[in-house]
Amino acid sequence: ARGVNRRAIDMGVSNTALCAFGVQFFGYIALSTALELWFYVDWSGKRDSSATHSRKIQRHKRACGTVRAHKSDPWGLPLYQLLCARKPTPDGRDECFEHHRLFASVNLLTSATFAGVVGETVNRGAPYTSLYGGSAFDLNCGIVACVWAFVKAVAWQSVAEYAWHRAMHSRFAYARWHKAHHAYASPCVWCDLCIHPLEALGYYVILYSPAFVIPMPKASFLAYICVMGVAGVLDHSGVDVAVRARGCGVAVYDTKFHDLHHARFNVNYAFPFDFIDRACGTYAEIKRDARAG
User: Which of 49, 84, 219, 269 has the smallest set of CB atoms within 10 Å of its CB?
Assistant: First the structure.
């Protein structure tokens, strides 16, 4: 009986897994909602969705997707609009991709499930995961080791994501899956998860794979997944954000980089960082003094 009880306990879901699922799920919703309220909702009541915040990259482009542009529009969360059968007013905005709400809802739940799985493996420890250390905030292994592990995870993700993204631009894959993600040439908040679920599954395998293939402190993986998660939202938000290295003014991260991929289609495949595109000859220069057209 004791063995049966232990097996039953092992089959349960740990608090770590539930916490990871919740942080991914509600963290995404919170960040996207904040961007929507600050940059997209026209609080003046003039019903002019083109009059978005001055930090919008393509300011002359109209609102698109499920984003809330007017005070009377429903919350832009695709899952909310799907369950409540509500849509934003069609005037002054581009048409929403037919399966946007369904795809984005499935992908949000899938990404949170992946986070929960990683959380469960962390709770169980080796050999289920390559992560090590005490808590997620334990830096006892040393700052240098933590930073180096973070760099390796970013490099792994960047190379794998670039290869996967280029594959999605093949004639076969684009027609069947990737075309949905390019429904918007000027993406707004909530457009990042407008991806065919089969394609998104590949991205999530790549995103979370460092937890299983790269020995790294838990703190490094936490930093890595936070950077990738936030950047994934910002890259498709249409909001102009740049992080510059102190002293030299070089942009370490720039949302215009991937926004230009949606505008021009065949450049800047990587995200969130551009070094793979530079190495592979697919990098297109971004101009800080002009708005993309």
Answer: 84
Amino acid at 8: A
- How does pLDDT run along the chain (293 residues), one tens digit per residue? 444 444 444 568 899 999 999 999 999 999 999 999 999 888 876 655 444 555 678 878 888 999 998 888 999 999 999 999 999 988 767 778 999 999 999 999 999 999 999 999 998 887 889 998 876 666 677 889 899 999 999 999 999 999 999 999 999 999 999 999 999 999 999 999 999 999 999 999 999 999 999 999 999 999 999 999 999 999 999 999 988 877 666 788 999 999 999 999 999 999 999 999 999 999 998 875 444 44
Distances, alpha carbon 189 to alpha carbons 62, 69, 112, 143, 250, in Å: 12, 11, 18, 35, 26
